[in-house]
Amino acid sequence: MKRTIQFAAIVLAILTAGPAMADRLPTNSERASVSSTLRANGFVSWGKIERDDGRWEVDNARHSNGRVYDVDIKNGRIVHREREWD
Questions:
Q1: What pLDDT digit, counting tens, does each position of 39-62 carry?
Q2: Ranges of each domain in the chain
Q3: What pLDDT, on a 0 to 100 scale, did the predictor assign at position 39?
């Protein structure tokens, strides 16, 4: 009986840990911080923002030069940008 309970506890821990590591949307304050970083780097609009692998991923961020990028932000800094091609 004790082993069954231990096994059930382990399975439950594994199943509930998965969603915690999945992508998530930002809170209002996190969204404001990401938006501030984007504006400070010349971006004027953007699409979806989500947290993944310890950084914020921003889709379709339009720069003031008219080009569109997917941007990764970590610790308030842009760490990667990839241009979207038509």
A1: 999 999 999 999 999 999 999 999
A2: 24-83
A3: 98
Residue the block writes with tokens 């998530």:
24
Rg (CA), the chain: 18
The number of residues in the chain equals: 86
Residues of the chain with pLDDT under 70: 1-22
CB 76 within 8 A of CB 37: yes
Helix (H), strand (E), coil (C) string for the chain? CHHHHHHHHHHHHHHHHHHHHCCECCCHHHHHHHHHHHHHCCEEECCCEEEECCEEEEEEEEECCCCEEEEEEECCEEEEEEECCC
